[in-house]
Design brief:
Blueprint lengths: L1 H15 L19 H12 L2 H11 L4 H29 L3 H44 L5 H14 L5 H30 L2 H4 L10 H10 L2 H5 L2 H4 L5 H30 L4 H8 L2 H30 L6 H15 L7 H11 L1 H15 L2 E3 L4 E2 L5 H19 L5 H23 L6 E2 L5 E4 L2
Antiparallel strand pairs: 1-4, 2-3
């Protein structure tokens, strides 16, 4: 009997060693909520991403400055509002994006969310790691060592994601001040090279792009990251604080990054940020600053695909999935992923927004008044009504991009929200049950007054 008790105690001790302080598969409790400054720092550091700057540089070769500014403002207002709403929902429910998708799409349906969001973050990580390798080797004249240097930085940066949100906060605080300097230096050098601000508005682009396609690229530059902002905003103390943090972090960060790249690309008529930095003669200084920048964003990206993997396999420990994602991303980084950057952004700008719209619509029409605790819900395998809504919204966004009808990203968001309601009414009219089974006496996350 004594031996049995000892075994049980050891078993309990073993389980406690694996307690997930990041609340990967459940609601963040009130006592674990954080000050808005910590969350704002992580999200702002997340948006200080060199690939947004690179997207701006690509657009800088294709539009006049007056049009670039319009694209920048419209695209980022749409993106920031979208992110802010998702952050509000996450703080209200205490859930990350993928767990919100479990309510929206069911147990199996949410796996698709894990794949698309986790997968896009692996792609992002690969882009960033490749960029780090390219900047580092170009600045030091070590181009022949691109592969080993890229592998080193990829594994080094990902290690901090294993530390959790605390590790990301520390890196974020370190990265913001120096990168703000780079964001100032590139526009200043661009204005000087052009011969003044007035001359910037007279530069003719070397190539062309449609207005809607440009906005899609701006939104696509961070729509995947924005859809996963709830991973951190769920720790906010109030929904209002979460909305404000998400909205302003993304609005400020993306505008600062994109305008820096746009001005560099416009003046140099070169869409490659590394080439732009070399032409400006600031490649070595930029290398030092970009180390912190890419370190920050890749740490959050690794954290995101770790969370996605944990939900996919229903395991509270994200570490194995961070490691697995790092291996995949590192392989991609050294095998040419850098070359399909703009195509990837266009894909994200069309296919991801409808997923966020679906989550927003499901919250508004199904969970706004009250939400049962995730532990008290017997989830359907697939909520077919919402799955159909998602597929139709994605199709609508794609068709609108092909035929240039409105803004594909915004269309995807609005269709995702509206079609949740439409499909719900159709299922009710047909008498088809599609709701999750909620256990009797289920506890609630909140209840509307």
């Amino acid at each position: 009997m004594e031996a049995e008790i000892i075994v049980k105690k050891e078993s309990v001790k073993t389980e406690k060693e694996y307690v997930d302080i990041d609340y990967t598969l459940t609601h963040v409790p009130k006592h674990a909520r954080k000050n808005w400054i910590a969350i704002f720092s992580v999200l702002l550091g997340f948006t200080f991403i060199v690939t947004t700057m690179a997207a701006g540089a690509n657009l800088g070769t294709s539009l006049m400055l007056s049009d670039l500014l319009k694209v920048l403002l419209i695209g980022n207002l749409i993106l920031s509002t979208y992110v802010g709403i998702l952050c509000w929902i996450s703080a209200k429910t205490g859930l990350n994006t993928i767990l919100l998708a479990r309510y929206s799409l069911g147990k199996l349906g949410s796996k698709w969310t894990s794949i698309i969001l986790g997968g896009t973050q692996v792609f992002w990580y690969a882009f960033q790691a490749a960029y780090m390798g390219k900047v580092f080797t170009a600045s030091l004249g070590l181009e022949s060592y691109f592969i080993p240097i890229t592998v080193f930085w990829s594994l080094f940066m990902g290690a901090f994601a294993l530390w959790g949100t605390k590790g990301m906060e520390i890196v974020a605080y370190l990265s913001i001040p120096p990168f703000l300097y780079l964001a100032y230096k590139i526009p200043a050098a661009s204005i000087e090279a052009a011969g003044g601000v007035e001359k910037l508005f007279l530069i003719e682009p070397a190539s062309t792009i449609t207005f809607t396609a440009a906005i899609t690229i701006i939104i696509g530059a961070f729509i995947s990251g924005g859809t996963q902002a709830p991973n951190w905003a769920r720790f906010a103390k109030t929904p209002k604080a979460a909305f404000q943090v998400g909205f302003f972090a993304f609005l400020i960060g993306n505008i600062v990054m994109a305008i820096s790249g746009m001005l560099g690309g416009l003046v140099m008529q070169d869409g490659d940020m590394v080439n732009i930095l070399m032409k400006m003669g600031i490649i070595v200084m930029a290398m030092i600053i970009l180390i912190f920048n890419i370190w920050t964003t890749n740490t959050t990206a690794a954290y995101s695909f770790g969370v996605a993997g944990a939900e996919f396999f229903n395991k509270p420990n994200k570490a194995p999935f961070v490691i697995g994602g790092l291996i995949i991303a590192t392989i991609m980084a050294v095998t040419g992923i850098y070359e399909v950057f703009i195509s990837f952004l266009t894909f994200l700008g069309i296919f991801v927004p409808s997923l966020g719209g679906l989550i927003i619509g499901d919250y508004i029409f199904n969970w706004r008044k009250s939400m049962p605790l995730i532990e008290n819900v017997n989830f359907r395998v697939i909520r077919t009504s919402n799955l159909i809504a998602y597929l139709l919204a994605t199709l609508g966004a794609y068709i609108s991009s092909v035929y240039e009808i409105g803004l594909p990203s915004l269309n995807g968001i609005l269709l995702g929200i509206g079609l949740v309601y439409v499909m719900k009414k159709i299922y009710q009219a047909l008498g088809i049950a599609d709701d999750h089974e909620i256990q009797k006496e289920a506890g609630l996350v909140y209840k509307a007054e």
